[in-house]
Amino acid sequence: MLLKGHPHTIECFRFATTDAAQSQISAGIKYKTEANNRERVRFTYYSGVLVLKGHGAYTTAEGTTYRLGPGDFFQRLPMQVHSTMVDPHEQWVELFLDLPAALFSALALCNVTDNCRHVLHPGIDIDWVKRGIMLIDELETCEPLRLPSIQARIVILLEQLLSMDRICSVTDQEKRLETARDLLSGTGQFQSAEAVAEYINMGYENFRKLFKQRYGISPNKYRISQRIFRAQDLLLATGSVRATARMLGYCDEFAFSKQFKQHTSISPLEYIHMNGNHVRSKEGEIID
After folding, report:
1. How would residue 42 be classed by pLDDT, with cut points 50, 70 and 90?
2. What per-residue confidence (pLDDT) applies to 279?
3. At what angle do helices 147-185 and 204-215 cross, to 10 degrees?
4. Which of 215, 109, 208, 118 is nearest to 165 (CA)?
5. What percent of the chain has pLDDT over 90?
6. CA distance 187 to 183
7. In this structure, are residues 73 and 117 in contact, taking their beta carbons and an 8 Å threshold?
8. 60 — phi, psi (to 5°)?
9. pTM value?
10. What is the end-to-end Cα distance of the chain in Å, rounded?
11. Among 29, 196, 202, 212, which has the highest number of CB atoms less than 10 A from its own CB?
12. Whole-angstrom distance, CA of residue 53 vs CA of residue 6
């Protein structure tokens, strides 16, 4: 509905000076097919592309491939070889914004834009897309003297995309850390913090650092503390060291007893005697 009334492809290329290679200002919406795939191409200018619909892939000169989908923003950095492919089984729609290479480089030095990452994930903001469409329409019809103003608005749109990416990245990171905390609290398939880091798609060192910043404790220590908390309840509920160790996923009761004593200063049996004398077998003896 947002693109209703527009032709399938609207592109506008203008130049702020007579030097086309140094002053290109362009924007547009493109509907692509497999015929538009570009392999190992190089642009003299900067081009940023927000995927509105469809899926595809972006490949750097080094051969790193990023999967693309709606809400992803990929950057064709000036003079860097790249390839873009679209899924032939889906309709692809993109909104692109182009700037001269020198201007983009200057903006990147001021952290207004990002020249370190090829693909960002800002998501799709309807108001942002509306502003982009309005800018395309104005770029097509504006007087030459207004081109610098249009260029400034492209810069603002790019800066807003970067801010949206940062917000989405923080939100996504928080969700992944919360998922990791829940997994570390359980007794399921994840028997190590490294396995949890892999599950939430984070490198372990980065995960360990972020988890400690967020919760004030390392993931491994958090996992152990949660197991000990659960062990205390289970010991009182079952009265059995062996059963508790098994339910918590320890290889044997001796490994469990050793870790329990390290964190509580008493053995599991001592904990039962001190806190759960009411927990007894049918014969009236404390279960061990």
Report:
1. very high
2. 47
3. 80
4. 118
5. 43
6. 8
7. no
8. -80, 175
9. 0.62
10. 69
11. 196
12. 15
For residue 184, what are its two tokens? 């570390």
The 3-state secondary structure of the chain reads: CCCCCCCCCEEEEEECCCCHHHHEEEEEEEEECHHHCEEEECCCCEEEEEEEECCEEEEECCCCEEEECCCCEEEECCCCCEEEEECCCCCEEEEEEEECHHHHHHHHHCCCCCCCCCEECCCCCHHHHHHHHHHHHHHHHCCHHHHHHHHHHHHHHHHHHHHHHHHHHHHHHHHHHHHHHHHHHCCCCCCCHHHHHHHCCCCHHHHHHHHHHHHCCCHHHHHHHHHHHHHHHHHHHHCCHHHHHHHCCCCCHHHHHHHHHHHHCCCHHHHHHHHCCCCCCCCCCCCC
Structure tokens at 286: 């404390």
Strand-pairing partners, residue 27, are 12, 97
Closest to 160 in 3D by CA, of 116, 92, 109, 107: 107
Residues 6+ positions from 133 with CB-CB distance below 8 Å: 2, 3, 6, 29, 95
Phi, psi of 37 (to 5 degrees): -60, 140
- 113: tokens are 């834009």
Average pLDDT over all residues of the chain? 86
pLDDT tens digits for 228-238? 988 998 998 88
Residue 256 structure tokens: 């469990």
- Residue 97 CA, distance from chain mean position: 23
Closest CA to 180 of 211, 157, 209: 211
Question: Which amino acid, 55?
Answer: H
Angle between helices 126-141 and 147-185 (to 10 degrees): 160
CB burial of residue 86 (10 Å; 0-12, 13-18, 19+): buried
**Tokens linked to 253:** 């009761």
